[in-house]
Structures are given as structure tokens and as C-alpha cells.
Design goal:
Shape of chain B: globular
Order of helices and strands of chain B: HEEHHHHHHHHHHEEHH
Strand content of chain A: 35-45%
Largest interface: A-B, 37 and 40 residues
Shape of chain A: elongated
Oligomer: heterodimer
Strand content of chain B: under 5%
Largest sheet of chain A: 7 strands, antiparallel
Helix content of chain A: 10-25%
Structural class of chain B: mainly alpha
Largest sheet of chain B: 2 strands, antiparallel
Helix content of chain B: 25-40%
Distance between the termini of chain A: 40 Å
Order of helices and strands of chain A: HEEHEEEEEEEEHE
Radius of gyration of chain B: 22 Å
Chain lengths: ~230, ~425
């Protein structure tokens, strides 16, 4: 019962890739797959000058309408201690990816889901520490093990600040009911974070790094938007 | 219920009854005082003022809540509501922890097996009790033990430090450790005769007419151990304070490997305490134990008969060889390694995991651990060049917290 899920990353990725490939072929013919893309855009942090800003997304999962209430119940206690990412399934992409909040506008495709035919009402997003091989890991590997990593300068005169945390968050983002699966059409889930001011009023002093990082993480996670197109 | 289920049920009953008896024995020495508090009803203590036992006006001064200052990245710790953490109790506990008068024959203290300079381990393969008996297991580090979901290597039932304190004091199985069973009044008499303890006990338990009781000894020991927080390593500066220069390039490479799916280390040694056997405010309630392929005697998956892990408590065959993943903090100082101290160096530990289990060619424990049917799926083995293995070791050594190892607040007060 206690034995952990032991699917190696390469197997997950390979299986996902295989499913995606098969799904794509199938989806292309039936046009029913659900692409998941992450739209990253700088400026979400407001006026601060940031040299690096990343938020680690562990998994994305589509939830059928019937499961939403059950999930809400589970979500009350679903704070995990392990850093292991989730295995991929037809409704879940479990490969961690980094949302680059600082450098440039870009869209990264996280994968393609092949959900069973159903009506879907929400998307569950898990944020947690990045594995070493998370999608979008910067070359200096500075985000390994972190859920949030922001470095930059702020204030007058500008002084360096850093925010970092390894805490995890799980949110369920409600969506207008939509059909997916065999009777659906090809869809795309767009994950984005509108420009805001996540650092507003946050104490950026080194002594406040823990609390401030937690605050900014909550703000960024709470600002996540999901759109079905 | 089938035979296996019956056995399991019976084992559980025996365990629960045994623990109850053990607790009762510990209590009986104290004139009917309450036993160790249950694991339920814990409270988180960070950013919150602990409840202090009420005292009558004009009585001894009230106790002072312990200023629990947690390092960045550490979650709120839990403390039983029935044993609020106070400065006075922690200080009494520190004195008791280092006092050999706690043992039946006056030769050993808790610190005999838990030395501060070794992150509260003892440097031995196997611990040795006050009467010379050798324990089947290696002394565990007490760093951040306030977060331990279970205490001891294989036991899923001992979850309170108050309860745990009774095991070395009064336990006879697997060995006599402190050997105080049947000598409770003698031990308490020693404490009453020590002038320092008069004020320490009365300050810690100011609302009690006679604070010299075994349960209070347990509470004080638990309180001191809860203060043993280690979160000041160079790695902590790197990860939790954002000081990217706090680790060398080699140590960063080691951390990257540690966090990779290739090596799988981080699945069991996860989170702020590098252990998945932790509890804290709002943490999951699940307990995890792992078989790392250390033994596979005769190809059956068996472990040595005196040290079989979780199966000894559950009677579930697949629990053979499953032990708690210990914290890796200060791991450089806690050699030798594994539950039985059977691996001498960190380099050898890396080789063990790289091989996906240990092969023992001859002798009574011969077997290929890699092929154990009960081994964790995370122990798959990996191929790394020598420099990467060295990087893993370098990273592990970056977890050493020198301030913790030398902090006078945790040191022997009798010196």
C-alpha cells in the first residue's frame, strides 16, 4: 500500500510521447485531442526589475464535471510532502514545466491530452519544486528544487532581492462546461497569468524572504488563468 | 478473514496492547500520573503563542513559551497540546538528556548514543546499551526530530517523542538501553538529590506539587528534542535564502543529480528535511517506509532475522526490509549509514544505490539485493561517471550545519 508509484521519468515521457503521437494521429483524424500550452509573458510582477522569475508547474489535469466536487473535498487535505511529480494519464500531464515570468513572451506546448469522452468543468493545477529536468529549466539550473524563484532589483535606490520557496500549491480552475473526447473537437487549453503586480507591497528584505515568497507564490498561483479555445 | 489477515489483525492487537502496557508501566512509577500524550491533538507552534499551563496567582512564575524560530523553508512544527513547549521544559530536558543518572546503573545518558558533534548520533555501526547489549540498529540523528512522522527506524506506532522517551528508558526489547525499568523511584530520587534539578523541575512544571515524575521526565526530554532544529547549512543558504554562491559548481551539480529522475534520490529523501517520513501543520498523514535492497537473503527478499523492518509490526510480507528514510541533514557527520550501520562511507552509499541494491556474496546474509522482490521501485540503479558520484557526495556534505553541531543551546550543561 505504501509502495510509491515508480514510473521513471523517461518512461513517463516516452509513454506520453507515444500516447501523444498516437493521439495526434488519432486526434488529427478525429480532431479530438486537447493541446495544453503555457503562455508566458513578462511583466506579471509589476514594476520590479527582475533578472530571473520562474514558477514551477508540476501537473495539469482535466477534471470531468462529476469529479469536481470530489476533488474539492480532496483538495482540503492534498498538501504533499514528496517532490515527485505526477504520472501522466490521458487527462493529466505530469511533467513539470517552468513558467518564465521575466524574459520574453513565449508559448510552450506542454503536451497533448487524449481525454475520454466526457464533459469537463475544470482544470487542476499543481505547483511544486522543479525536477532537474523540468521543461524550460534555465541553463544555470538555478530553479532546481524550487517552486518559485525570483531575483531582481527593486526600490529607490534599487537593491537586490530574491524570493524563493519550495512550498506546493494545488488549485482548481473552473471552466465553462466543454465536451472533449471522441465526440468533442480538437481543443487547446491555454494557461496564462495576466500582467499584474505580484510584488506590490511585499517586503523584499532578506529577513522576510520566507513569508514574502509565500505571498508572491499565492498571488501568482491565484492569478493563473485557463482558457479553452 | 483469511489466515494472513487474522495474523495481521492479531499482530496489531498484540502491538497495541503491548504499547499500552509499556505506557502503563512507565506511568505506574509516577504515582498514577498521566501517560505519554497521544499523537492526536497537536498544534502548530510557529507564529503562534503556545498554551502555557495556568498557575494560581502567587504561585511560582509562569513558564515562558519557547521562541520557536524556524529557518526559511521550514513548515510549522507540531507540538502536542498536552505538552506545550516552554523554555523551562526544554532546559530541564537538556539537563536530563545529558545526565547518566537517567539510566538504571548510572552509566549512560541519552547523549551516550546521541552526540551533538555527530548530529546526535554515536559513530557506531550499532548502538550499545548501558548493560553492554548491542542494539540491532544504528543510532538515528535527532536533527529536526520535531518533524519526524515516526520515531525509530521501523516502528509505525511510536509517533510522539514523549512516548519514544519511554523506550530507551524502560524497554527490554530488542535490548536494554538505559535500563531504568523497575528503578524508577531510584532514578527520581537521584534527581531529587541534585540541587540543580530542584529549580529546574519546579520551573518547568510550576503548577505541580511534586514535579519529579517519570511522565514529566518524558515531557521534558521531548521538549528539548523538539528544539533541535537544523536549517543553517550552506545548502539552506542556497535554496531557501537564494544565495546562489553558497554552493560550489560541483555541489550544485550534485543537487541537480539528486533531484533528477535518473538517480531518484529525492522521492524518498524529499522536502525540507530530506525525508518523506515527516509531519507538520497540514501535512499528509501517510507514513512511508522503504526497502532499499540492502539484503535479499537466499533470493527470498529476507532481511536478517533480528532486523526485518516494518514487517515486524505489520506482519505484511511485502513490508520486509522496509525502514524509514532518515533525514540527510548533517549526513556527513552521521556515519556509518543505513539502519544497521552496515555501509561505512557516503561514497559507498552512492555505490549501493548506483548498483540498485547490495550484493553479499558469502555468509549467512548472502544474496543479491538488486533482485529483492520487496525493493522500492525507486532503487533502480543508475550509471554515473565518477565525477558525478563525487558531486552527489559533495552535495550531501553541503547539508552539514556547523552552527547546529556546536550550538551551546544544545550542548551538555553539566560540563
Amino acid at each position: 500500500v505504501l509502495r510509491p508509484t515508480t514510473i521513471p521519468r523517461w518512461l513517463v515521457a516516452g509513454s506520453l510521447g507515444l500516447v501523444t503521437a498516437v493521439g495526434c494521429e488519432d486526434a488529427d483524424s478525429k480532431d479530438t485531442g486537447v493541446d495544453v500550452v503555457l503562455d508566458s509573458a513578462p511583466g506579471a510582477l509589476g514594476a520590479a526589475s527582475t533578472s530571473a522569475a520562474y514558477l514551477s508547474l508540476e501537473s495539469v489535469e482535466m477534471l470531468p464535471c462529476g469529479d469536481a466536487s470530489a476533488f474539492r473535498l480532496r483538495s482540503l487535505v492534498a498538501i504533499r510532502s514528496a517532490w515527485a511529480h505526477d504520472p501522466g494519464t490521458p487527462t493529466r500531464i505530469g511533467v513539470p514545466a517552468l513558467d518564465d515570468l521575466a524574459t520574453a513572451t513565449k508559448t510552450v506546448k506542454l503536451g497533448t491530452l487524449t481525454p475520454p469522452e466526457s464533459t469537463y468543468c475544470s482544470v487542476r493545477l499543481k505547483f511544486g519544486p522543479a525536477d532537474a529536468d523540468a521543461v524550460g529549466m534555465p541553463s544555470d539550473r538555478s530553479v532546481v528544487g524550487r517552486t518559485l524563484w525570483i531575483a531582481g532589483r527593486a526600490g529607490d535606490p534599487p537593491t537586490e532581492f530574491k524570493l524563493t520557496t519550495t512550498e506546493t500549491r494545488t488549485v482548481e480552475v473552473p471552466l465553462p462546461r466543454f465536451q472533449a473526447g471522441d465526440k468533442g473537437r480538437r481543443l487547446t487549453l491555454h494557461l496564462s497569468r495576466p500582467t499584474g503586480d505580484a510584488l506590490a507591497g511585499v517586503d523584499l528584505a532578506p529577513s522576510a524572504i520566507d513569508e514574502s515568497s509565500r505571498t508572491v507564490l499565492d498571488r501568482l498561483v491565484g492569478a493563473t488563468r485557463v482558457e479553452v479555445r | 478473514m483469511n489466515a494472513a489477515g487474522t495474523t495481521r489483525f492479531a499482530s496489531t492487537i498484540v502491538l497495541v496492547v503491548s504499547l499500552a502496557i509499556s505506557s502503563a508501566l512507565g506511568c505506574s512509577s509516577s504515582g498514577g500520573d498521566v501517560g505519554p500524550p497521544p499523537n492526536r491533538d497537536h498544534r502548530d507552534v510557529a507564529n503562534e503563542t503556545p498554551v502555557v499551563p495556568s498557575v494560581d496567582a502567587g504561585a511560582a512564575p509562569a513558564t515562558i513559551p519557547y521562541p520557536f524560530e524556524l529557518p526559511p523553508g521550514f513548515p510549522k512544527a507540531l507540538v502536542p497540546a498536552t505538552n506545550p513547549l516552554t523554555i523551562e521544559k526544554a532546559e530541564l530536558g537538556r539537563h536530563l538528556f545529558y545526565d547518566p543518572r537517567l539510566s538504571g546503573n548510572g552509566t549512560q545518558s541519552c547523549a551516550s548514543c546521541h552526540e551533538q558533534a555527530r548530529a546526535f548520533t554515536d559513530g557506531r555501526e550499532l548502538a550499545v546499551g548501558s548493560t553492554g547489549q548491542v542494539h540491532p540498529r544504528n543510532s538515528m540523528s535527532l536533527a529536526n526530530v520535531v518533524y519526524a512522522g515516526t520515531l525509530t527506524w521501523p516502528n509505525p506506532l511510536v509517533r510522539d517523542l514523549e512516548m519514544q522517551a519511554a523506550l530507551p528508558m524502560f524497554g527490554l526489547d530488542p535490548i536494554v538501553e538505559l535500563g531504568a525499568r523497575g528503578k524508577e523511584e531510584e532514578v527520581l530520587a537521584r534527581f531529587r538529590a541534585e540541587p540543580r534539578y530542584e529549580s529546574l523541575f519546579r520551573s518547568a512544571f510550576s503548577d505541580e506539587a511534586d514535579p519529579f515524575t517519570i511522565p514529566n521526565v518524558q515531557r521534558a526530554l521531548a521538549s528539548f528534542q523538539r528544539t533541535l532544529i537544523s536549517g543553517g547549512s550552506r545548502f539552506d543558504r542556497y535554496l531557501y535564502r537564494g544565495e546562489l554562491d553558497a554552493l560550489s559548481a560541483q555541489e550544485k551539480r550534485g543537487y541537480e543529480l539528486f533531484q533528477s529522475e535518473a538517480c531518484e534520490c529525492f522521492h524518498c529523501h524529499s522536502g525540507f528535511n530530506f525525508s518523506d517520513a515527516v509531519v507538520y501543520a497540514n501535512s499528509p498523514a501517510d507514513l512511508k517506509f522503504h526497502n532499499t535492497g540492502l539484503y535479499n537473503i537466499g533470493g527470498t527478499g529476507a532481511f536478517p532475522t533480528n532486523n526485518r523492518g516494518l514487517i515486524e509490526f505489520t506482519a505484511v510480507p511485502s513490508d520486509m526490509g522496509r525502514f524509514k528514510a532518515p533525514t540527510l541533514r548533517n549526513i556527513e557527520k552521521t556515519a556509518p549509514y543505513m539502519h544497521d550501520g552496515s555501509i561505512a562511507t557516503l561514497e559507498d552509499v552512492i555505490e549501493h544505490y548506483a548498483a540498485g541494491g547490495r550484493t553479499i556474496s558469502t555468509g549467512p546474509n548472502a544474496g543479491v539485493g538488486h533482485d529483492s522482490p520487496f525493493k522500492s521501485g525507486f532503487v533502480m540503479g543508475f550509471a554515473l561517471p565518477a565525477e558525478d558520484k563525487a558531486a552527489l557526495v559533495a552535495f550531501l556534505k553541503s547539508l552539514t550545519d556547523d552552527a547546529f553541531l556546536t550550538n551551546p543551546k544544545f550542548a551538555n550543561p553539566w560540563l
